[in-house]
Amino acid sequence: MAVIHHTTVKPTKLELLTSWLPTRPWYTGGAGGPALARAGGFRLDDPQGAVGIEFIVVNDTSGTAPATYLVPLTYRGAPLDGAEHALLGTMEHGVLGRRWIYDGCHDPVLLAELPALIGGRVQAQDQNISDTLDPDVVRSCAGPVPDGFTTATDEPEATVLSAPAHGATLRVQRVLRPAVDDAPVLATEALGHVAGAWDLPDGTRARGLFAVLYA
Fold it and tell me: In angstroms, rounded to a whole number, what is the distance separating the alpha carbons of residues 10 and 90?
């Protein structure tokens, strides 16, 4: 399991996101830039132990109404070839040194591990505590989970990952919506999903869909 280092990072993740989020088609915040606060999230392990994988949930109160975003990030010790378009920036980590931070929807390690989570082959880890599962993250799967997700396309509220060889898609929610009565409802054609919890700006707890698999 991933080891969480409680150390300094410069710039911080929120500082990187403050610059990057307004460039996204699903950003709904104010023209002056987002006003961000951490709201939740979880981690996945890289089987090779080289790439950090974190799904960060942030609240943004800069717009006419608060918005909540899901941002999958990967942390690498060297640049990822061919992924310059997905680079948020670099940070100096107090233990690991320089790290390259990517939109995880364009990183092959995350593209392999998120379907594995849906299929139950891996488990969600706590965002802040080493060697600890996150009980707030739940998943389901009604059949074999395809692999080979290689492309990511941004939509107004989501990023759609595609596995062309299987005709499968994995919709990663970028703008999170609280489920009614905290019970996410899947479309009838969905094969599987990941759902989780986060804190709203008013301090209440919400649950909703993070990702839905269609095949």
Answer: 9
Question: Buried b / exposed e across 89-123, counting CB within 10 Å, b at 16+?
Answer: eebebeeeeebbbbbbbbbebbbbbbbbbbbeebe
Whose CA is closest to 74, among 60, 64, 86, 62?
Answer: 86
pTM: 0.94
> Which position has the token pair 């409680």?
6
Task: Tell me if residue 119 falls in helix, strand or coil.
Answer: coil
* Interacting residues of 56 by C-beta distance below 8 A, sequence separation 6+: 13, 17, 38, 41, 70, 71, 72, 73, 127
Residue 34, phi then psi, degrees to nearest 5 = -75, 155
Smallest CA-to-CA distance from 211 within 76, 110, 109, 80 is with 110
Q: How would you class 209 by CB atoms within 10 Å of its CB: exposed for 0-12, middle for 13-18, buried for 19 or more?
A: buried
Contact assessment for residue 42 and residue 50, using Cβ atoms and an 8 Å cutoff: no
Profile the chain (215 residues) by mean pLDDT over runs of 10 residues.
Answer: 71 96 94 95 96 97 95 97 96 85 98 97 94 95 92 95 93 96 86 96 95 94
Can the peptide bond before residue 115 be classed as cis, meaning omega within 30 degrees of 0? no
CB-CB contact of 66 with 201 (8 Å):
yes
Bridge partners (DSSP) listed for residue 49: none
DSSP secondary structure, 151-164, as one string:
EEEE-SSEEEEEET
